[in-house]
Amino acid sequence: MRSIARRLILALAIGLSAPAAAQGGAVVAAPAGAVRGVQEGGLRVFRGIPYALPPVGERRWRAPAAMPPWQGVREATEFGPSCIQPEYPAGIYTDDVGPTSEDCLTLNIWAPENAERLPVFVWIYGGALERGSSRLAIYDGAALARRGLVIVTINYRLGVLGWLAHPALSAESPDHVSGNYGLLDQVQALRWVRENIAAFGGDPGNVTIAGESAGALSVMYLMASPQARGLFHRAIVQSGYMITAPELRESRFGLPSAESAGEAFQARLGAADLAEMRAASPARLLAAARRAGFFPFPAVDGTVVPRQLVETFDRREQAPVPVLAGFNDGEIRSLPILLPQAPVTARAYEEAIRAAYGDRADDFLRFYPSTNIAASMLATTRDAMYGWTAERLAVKQTALGQDAFLYVFDHGYPAADRAGLHAFHASELPYMFGTIRRTARAWPSIPQNAAEETFSRQMVDYWASFARTGRPEAAGAPAWPPYGNIQAYMWFGETPRAAARLPPGRYALHEEVVCRRRAAGIAWNWNVGVASPPLPPQAPGCR
Fold first, then answer.
1. CA dihedral defined by 439, 498, 469, 49, rounded to 10 degrees?
2. 121 CB burial (10 A radius; 0-12, 13-18, 19+)
3. Coil, helix or strand at residue 339
4. Which of 18, 186, 213, 461 is the most exposed place for a label (fewest CB within 10 A)?
5. Which of 240, 247, 303, 291 is nearest to 265 (CA)?
6. The one catalytic residue among 170, 213, 260, 465
7. Is the pLDDT confidence value at 494 over 60?
8. Is 33 helix (H, G, I), strand (E, B) or coil?
């Protein structure tokens, strides 16, 4: 009866005649307006659906505004433009993002034919909040959709266009805040999903948000933001990093305020006022951002981002939802920019660590010894950022009474291993999306064999199952227990394997370092290991 009623509503909404229906394509009448997609392998696929008004002209650097319902049938067969972003030299993370535009706030949907109230999986891409696109082939949602989900991938504003704070922007805001426009785009996309996804066969009461790297960072900020509360029901955080964020108006933890960074950008732009900034071309903005060293990041504004992420989770103010979180064994192998210069000798390494970590130096050297400095430095930055964050999420959600599922991705294959990129940052993506044949040109080629196909199928199953039920399960693969009291995790090595207790004491070491730094007003970022400032003395509550 529901499907018949939907067809009747569709016909009434768009006046669909027999000749029009013969044009082919999948047509859905959503509250936002009718859209025509395409049929692909048992799925209905809709690309480039706008979820907000274009943030151009006077709407540049404003919160996204809802798109009014459109008339007629909008074609949704091609991806929308990617958001404005700088060009990067060729590398494993460089892919063709297609045309770019400020008019980029669109989303894409993959839904099984005849879908009815299926779980919804919303993907937020990574790229340091500066680059990325929902159109990349590696994010194709078909394999996950065939597991009985409705998949949504979204674009959001990047770089200086998405994350600029400035006193003049704060002054014109009803909430007297600025920045975080990219995060507000994500919130608006989730509101669109809540209001429209049922027309595509999705259940607005069963939404999972997921992302990797900067997308995982975004997921954590959505968990922390009051604006996103109630818009999702589970969260997946792949290689997230819970590091220091700038405060909107204050200089704290050794970071300039976000507004002062915006003023520095204005000076580099050479603009007299906000009107001139809004009139500048995107190319001019990108050039000025590069000269100013502008680093896009959420700003703690007390409204959209109430406080530092670590504090939000300590205060149990985050969204009380089940979480699946993890990190890759080789995170830093593809991110050497995050590493400081290595000491030449073992003695120099140990001296640097003892000077930096004081009373915790022996513990540090137990995990990151001088016997292999290169490996220890890779592991230090990996664990201090990505490993600590993933386990912290598991600890904090478990304390809320929510299930948390932790993983370590340690899967290698010949091309990656030969390049020194075993289990590198983002290398889990083609496996959990089921797109191991659709990676970027420079991505280490994944073997075409049954073992890799099986491994990918199991990861797709785990991720899809978590989105459906809150419990990751895969046919023919081990049970994945929640973190709980046994500190369980899934090790994705050659094959998946359940285990318990990552190296005891490692998480506690990094947690204490962050706690002491917070108490002393020092940033907790990638300034770790031989690049660490001297560890402040013991502080109350840091044991």
1. -10
2. buried
3. coil
4. 18
5. 291
6. 213
7. yes
8. strand
Cβ count near 399 (within 10 Å): 12
Tokens for 256?
């300039």
SS3 label, residue 473: coil
Beta strand 118-124 with 202-212 is parallel
Q: Which residues contact 256 (CB under 8 A, 6 or more apart)?
A: 246, 264
Backbone angles phi, psi at 408, to 5 degrees: -125, 125
Cα 228 from Cα 298, distance rounded (Å) = 15
Please give the backbone phi and psi of residue 296, each rounded to the nearest 5 degrees, phi first.
-70, 130
Q: Are β-strands 202-212 and 234-238 bridged in parallel, bridged antiparallel, or unpaired?
A: parallel
- Structural domains in the chain plus CATH codes: 2-531 (3.40.50.1820)
pLDDT tens track for 410-461: 999 999 999 999 999 999 999 999 999 999 889 999 999 999 999 999 999 9
Token match 């598991």: residue? 394
Report the distance separating Cα 191 and Cα 228, nearest Å.
8
Side by side, the strands of the sheet bearing 73-75 are 27-30, 33-36, 73-75
Q: Which of 102, 331, 350, 428 is catalytic?
A: 331
As given in the structure block, the two tokens for residue 397 are 């959600």
Mean of the per-residue pLDDT values for the chain?
94
Helix (H, G, I), strand (E, B) or coil at 379: helix
176 classed as catalytic: no
SS3 254: coil
Candidates 295, 292, 293, 290; CA nearest to 266 is 292
Among 334, 425, 510, 532, which one carries the catalytic annotation?
Answer: 425
Q: What is the pLDDT of residue 355?
A: 98
- Cβ-in-10-Å burial (0-12, 13-18, 19+) of 420 comes to exposed
Name the amino acid, one letter, at 393. L
| Gap between the Cα atoms of 197 and 183, Å rounded | 20
Q: Which amino acid would we find at residue 162?
A: G
> Left if phi > 0, otherwise alpha if psi is -120 to 50, otherwise beta: which for 484?
left
Predicted TM-score of the model (pTM): 0.95
Where does 297-359 show beta strands of DSSP type E? 323-328
Tokens of 74: 């909008």
Q: The tokens 């044949």 sit on which residue?
A: 437
Q: Is 425 a catalytic residue?
A: yes
Name, in order, each residue with C-beta under 8 angstroms of 272's C-beta and a sequence gap of 6 or more: none
Question: Other C-beta atoms within 10 Å of 535: how many?
Answer: 20
C-alpha to C-alpha distance for 58 and 54, rounded to whole angstroms:
10
The reply to whether 166 belongs to the active site is no
How far, in whole angstroms, is CA 93 from its chain's centroid?
15
345-395: per-residue pLDDT in tens?
999 999 999 999 999 999 999 999 999 999 999 999 999 999 999 999 999
The token pair that represents 269 in the structure block: 């732009």
* Distance from chain centroid for Cα 316: 21
Cα–Cα distance, 297 to 303 (Å, whole number): 16
Q: Please, are residues 237 and 223 in contact by the beta-carbon 8 Å criterion?
A: no
